[in-house]
């Protein structure tokens, strides 16, 4: 039996209260096409926590061996590891810019200063470069006054960078500067670096806590329900999609083609399509498609144009890369080792125009690429709320001496995740409900392939 607070009164809540009424037996087959129907017998456990505080010694052993799959819940701890009056904290921001970085920096500084009384907080400039003396970047002091208004601006007051730095040299710098807690704000690359930095700190037996905060508009960190900046990026994409829709409807046989960021995952494209509902085709890296052939994109587009006279296509920048590459295409990478993508937006524009020219159908295609405009803005209200929470929970974790971990939302709960589990990359499941909802709301064919793909060998991690 559980208790719930309703209108200020405590009310006993029992399992019977959660039974849903049915009008009667359902005897008619549903016309909805999905891979998995949801049976009434599938239920969500309500806020189940597990408390193993009275287990005596070897608690970690107990978690490893006896406790079912679970993660540590974030929050202030009764006992902390670092003495606030002697604690020095450092903050770094790495990888691409993202809405909300300044909100997180502000939240960390305010929480350290006002809740814990930490007075020594520094900012590392230009990502991990700032820890390498030869770059000559200054170290900046962070105070409540210096961060007071930074959340009103996009970008990062500390700036950022890409490119690998020597792990040993970075740990030398942290140790030389007597840093006790190192907050790393970044995406998958940053977390891979953070994992290696933690290993080196552990190898040297240093008492430096490393806490990650999940930043990236791509929302591609495993187990993290949502990275900060993602919601804002979706909201910012809306304008480009609306404009594409207006342009498509404003001319005979109009096509609005929008390319949106999203390197290895189409999370932003999917989110924007579901938020916008003017999109007719969503193309993402996780779902391959053919251009030509009876089931390919061109034929589907032609059918749609004949039927509705206009069409909006939203393509994630990482989609359809295999259509543009030949065996001789060089595989270029950026300074951090991320694969440089070929331009699917321009490629599709040229190929679609070419197809309809050959088919003798006059179209009007307008191509929009909002590019960096979706990530260099300030955070939306919902992202700002998320960023403050992440900053606050990161400080609680750091002060408690936790390390090699990241704070994040999982199943609507703030949790501590070991950094090693988040870096493997999160993608949209083409068989999952999210993609099914995209297919339903766009009306695009379930597959734009002429030949079905071989079934996947690996199983998806389901959380
Ligand atoms: N395996 C690694 N070892 C050491 N450093 C790494 C490693 N992977 C990435 N880094 C470094 O981490 C930093 C951030 O990585 P990256 O540029 O890939 O951005 P990110 O954190 O993934 O963010 P985003 O994808 O949102 O831009 C870079 O300085 C990069 O060189
Ligand atoms: O800043 P850069 O190096 O051009 O990076 C662009 C990439 O960064 C991201 O914005 C975030 O990883 C991606 O969506 C995009 O592919
Ligand atoms: Mg990345």
From TrEMBL:
Q: What is its pathway?
A: Carbohydrate degradation; glycolysis; D-glyceraldehyde 3-phosphate and glycerone phosphate from D-glucose: step 3/4
Indicate the enzyme's highest-level EC class. transferase
Question: Which residues are Mg(2+)-binding?
Answer: 188
**Major place of residence:** cytoplasm
Q: Which GO terms describe its molecular function?
A: 6-phosphofructokinase activity; ATP binding; diphosphate-fructose-6-phosphate 1-phosphotransferase activity; metal ion binding
Under the heading Gene3D superfamilies, the entry gives: 3.40.50.450
Q: Which GO terms describe its biological process?
A: fructose 6-phosphate metabolic process
Catalytic activity from the UniProt record: beta-D-fructose 6-phosphate + ATP = beta-D-fructose 1,6-bisphosphate + ADP + H(+); beta-D-fructose 6-phosphate + diphosphate = beta-D-fructose 1,6-bisphosphate + phosphate + H(+)
**Which sites bind substrate?**
216-218, 261-263, 317, 372-375
* Entry keyword annotation includes Kinase: yes
Statement: the UniProt record of this protein carries the keyword Magnesium: yes
Q: Which PANTHER family match?
A: ATP-DEPENDENT 6-PHOSPHOFRUCTOKINASE 1
Its annotated function is as follows:
Catalyzes the phosphorylation of D-fructose 6-phosphate, the first committing step of glycolysis. Uses inorganic phosphate (PPi) as phosphoryl donor instead of ATP like common ATP-dependent phosphofructokinases (ATP-PFKs), which renders the reaction reversible, and can thus function both in glycolysis and gluconeogenesis. Consistently, PPi-PFK can replace the enzymes of both the forward (ATP-PFK) and reverse (fructose-bisphosphatase (FBPase)) reactions. Catalyzes the phosphorylation of D-fructose 6-phosphate to fructose 1,6-bisphosphate by ATP, the first committing step of glycolysis.
Q: Which family does it belong to?
A: Belongs to the phosphofructokinase type A (PFKA) family. PPi-dependent PFK group II subfamily. Atypical ATP-dependent clade 'X' sub-subfamily.
Self-association and partners: Homodimer.
- What is the protein's given name? ATP-dependent 6-phosphofructokinase
Query: To which species is this protein native?
Result: Syntrophus aciditrophicus (strain SB)
This chain is encoded by the gene named pfkA
């Amino acid at each position: 039996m559980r208790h719930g607070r309703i209108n200020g009164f405590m009310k006993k809540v029992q399992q019977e209260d959660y039974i849903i009424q049915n009008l009667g037996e359902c005897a008619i087959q549903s016309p909805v096409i999905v891979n998995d129907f949801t049976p009434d017998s599938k239920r969500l456990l309500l806020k189940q926590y597990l408390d193993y505080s009275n287990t005596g010694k070897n608690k970690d052993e107990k978690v490893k061996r006896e406790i079912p799959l679970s993660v540590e819940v974030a929050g202030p701890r009764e006992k902390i590891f670092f003495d606030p009056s002697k604690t020095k904290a450092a903050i770094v921001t790495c990888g691409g810019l993202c809405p909300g970085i300044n909100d997180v920096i502000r939240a960390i500084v305010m929480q350290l200063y006002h809740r814990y009384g930490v007075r020594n907080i520094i900012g590392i400039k230009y990502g991990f470069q700032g820890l390498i003396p030869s770059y000559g970047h200054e170290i900046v002091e962070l105070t409540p006054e210096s961060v007071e208004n930074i959340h009103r601006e996009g970008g990062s007051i500390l700036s950022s960078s890409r490119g690998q730095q020597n792990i040993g040299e970075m740990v030398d710098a942290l140790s030389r500067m007597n840093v006790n807690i190192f907050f790393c704000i970044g995406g998958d690359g940053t977390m891979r670096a953070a994992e290696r930095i933690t290993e080196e700190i552990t190898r040297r037996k240093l008492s430096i806590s490393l806490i990650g905060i999940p930043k990236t508009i791509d929302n591609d960190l495993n187990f993290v329900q949502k990275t900060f900046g993602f919601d804002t990026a979706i909201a910012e994409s809306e304008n480009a999609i609306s404009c594409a829709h207006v342009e498509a409807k404003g001319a005979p046989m109009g096509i609005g083609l929008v390319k949106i960021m999203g390197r290895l995952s189409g999370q932003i494209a999917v989110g924007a399509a579901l938020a916008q509902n003017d999109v007719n085709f969503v193309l993402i890296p996780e779902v391959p498609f053919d251009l030509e052939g009876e089931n390919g994109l061109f034929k589907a587009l032609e059918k749609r144009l004949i039927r509705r006279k206009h069409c909006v296509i939203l393509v994630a920048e990482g989609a359809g890369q295999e259509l543009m590459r030949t065996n001789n295409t060089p595989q270029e990478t950026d300074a951090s080792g991320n694969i440089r993508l070929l331009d699917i937006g321009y490629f599709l524009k040229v190929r679609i125009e070419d197809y309809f020219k050959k088919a003798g159908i006059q179209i009007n295609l307008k191509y929009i690429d909002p590019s960096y405009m979706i990530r260099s803005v300030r955070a939306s209200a919902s992202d700002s709320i998320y960023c403050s929470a992440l900053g606050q929970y990161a400080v609680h974790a750091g002060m408690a001496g936790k390390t090699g971990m990241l704070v994040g939302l999982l199943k609507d709960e703030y949790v501590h995740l070991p950094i090693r589990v988040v870096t493997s990359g999160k993608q949209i499941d083409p068989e999952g409900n999210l993609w099914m909802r995209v297919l339903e709301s766009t009306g695009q064919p379930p597959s734009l392939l002429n030949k079905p793909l071989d079934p996947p060998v690996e199983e998806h991690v389901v959380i």
